[in-house]
C-alpha cells in the first residue's frame, strides 16, 4: 500500500522559496499535495497559485486583502477557503489541514507560524532563518518536545543535515565549515562599497532569491545569520563554525569529524534540491535539478571572508557569543536597515553601521521567554528607525 500524500502548508507561497517548493510538489502529485497556501500581500499572485494548486485553504496576511481573496476564489469557481491574519495561519498550521509545513515567510514575521508548526509536531521545512536567529532555543525546544522533525531549507544547513544523519555522527563532530558565495561584491574593499545601489546588491551571481536575503548576501549578514542558525540546529558554538568563501557555490557546506574525515554535500545552486530532501527524507525524490558535472565546472576555490569590507559577519559572531537578546537585536536592526536601503533611504555601508550602533545601544540581556525576545526585537526596530531618521 502506498502512503497517503503529504498535506503541505506553504507559508510564503508567492516568494522565491515558495515557488520552488510548489514546483517540487507539482512533480509528485501522488506523494505531495499543497493544502494550505499563505502569502503576505500579493492577492493576485496568491489567487493564481490557488488556481494552479487547488489548496483547501488560502491565507493572506494583510487584512485589506481578504475580500479580494475571497471574491477572487469564488469568481474562479474554487472551493478554497479564504482566511486572513496571523491567528488564522497559526490555527491552520496547528490543525490537520497539513502534516508538513514549508516555513518560507521572510523575516521575524515568520516566527509565530514557524513556532506553531514546531509546537504541533509537524514536519517543518525551515527556510525562515530569522525565526531561529530570534528565538532559536525556544523553537528547537518546542520541536523536540512535540517531536517535530526540522529539516533545514537553507542550502548550507541542508548540506550539513545530510552529512549528519544521526546522533552517532553528531558525537564525533569537530567543526562545521559553512560556505558562502561572497555575494555580488566579493573582492571589493570597504571604500568601493560606498555608492553601491539596491539593484547591484540584489544581483546575486549564483542564486535567485527574494530582495531581503539578496541584500543580506551582499553584506554577508546572511552568512552571519546562518552561523547563528547552525549553532541552534546542530548544537555547536561559534568557535566551532568556520566560514569559507566559495565563489562557485557548488559545495554547500562541510562537516569535519574528530577522526580527520571531512564530508561535504555538493550540487547546483537550486533550492529545489534542499526542498526535495525536506519532503522525502530519509528517502530521495526527483527535484527537477540536474546532477553536477564537475568536469564542466573544473575547479572549486575557497577564500577567507573579508571582515573589514563586510563587518556584518563579525557582528553576527559577536552577537552569538554575547547570547541572550543580542541575536534578536542584530536581526531586527538588520531588517530595518535592509528595508531602508532597498527604499534608498540609507547607503549600503549604513547597514552594518546601524546594526553595530543598535547592538551597542541595547546591550544583551538574558532572554528566557518569547516575550522578552519580542520586546528586544521591538526596541531594536525603534532604535534603528530613529537612527535612520537622525541620519537623514
Ligand atoms: P521572498 O521575499 O521571495 O518571499 C517572501 C514570502 O513571504 C512571500 O510569499 C511574501 O508574501 C511572504 N510574506 C512576507 N511577509 C509576510 C507576512 N507578514 N505574513 C505572511 N507572509 C509574508 O523571500 P525568499 O527569498 O523566498 O525567502 C524566504 C525565507 O527563506 C527567508 O527567511 C530567507 O532567508 C529564507 N531563505 C531563502 C533562500 C532563497 O533561495 N530564496 C535560501 C535560504 C533561505
Ligand atoms: Mg544559505
From TrEMBL:
Mn(2+) binds at residues 154, 156, 226. The keyword Manganese applies. Its EC number is 1.1.1.267. It catalyses: 2-C-methyl-D-erythritol 4-phosphate + NADP(+) = 1-deoxy-D-xylulose 5-phosphate + NADPH + H(+). NADPH binds at residues 14-17, 40, 128, 130, 210. Pfam families: DXP_redisom_C, DXP_reductoisom, DXPR_C. Residues 8-136 form the 1-deoxy-D-xylulose 5-phosphate reductoisomerase N-terminal domain. Its cofactor is Mg(2+); Mn(2+). 1-deoxy-D-xylulose 5-phosphate binds at residues 129, 155-156, 181, 204, 217, 222-223, 226. Keywords: Isoprene biosynthesis, Magnesium, Manganese, Metal-binding, NADP, Oxidoreductase. It comes from the Bacteria. Residues 266-382 form the DXP reductoisomerase C-terminal domain. Pathway: Isoprenoid biosynthesis; isopentenyl diphosphate biosynthesis via DXP pathway; isopentenyl diphosphate from 1-deoxy-D-xylulose 5-phosphate: step 1/6. Residues 150-234 form the 1-deoxy-D-xylulose 5-phosphate reductoisomerase C-terminal domain. It is an enzyme of class 1 (oxidoreductase). One of its GO terms (molecular function) is 1-deoxy-D-xylulose-5-phosphate reductoisomerase activity. NCBIfam families: Dxr (TIGR00243), PRK12464.1 (NF009114). Belongs to the DXR family. Catalyzes the NADPH-dependent rearrangement and reduction of 1-deoxy-D-xylulose-5-phosphate (DXP) to 2-C-methyl-D-erythritol 4-phosphate (MEP). PANTHER family: 1-DEOXY-D-XYLULOSE 5-PHOSPHATE REDUCTOISOMERASE, 1-DEOXY-D-XYLULOSE 5-PHOSPHATE REDUCTOISOMERASE, CHLOROPLASTIC. HAMAP family: DXP_reductoisom (MF_00183). This is 1-deoxy-D-xylulose 5-phosphate reductoisomerase. The lineage of its organism: Bacteria, Pseudomonadati, Pseudomonadota, Gammaproteobacteria, Lysobacterales. The gene is dxr.
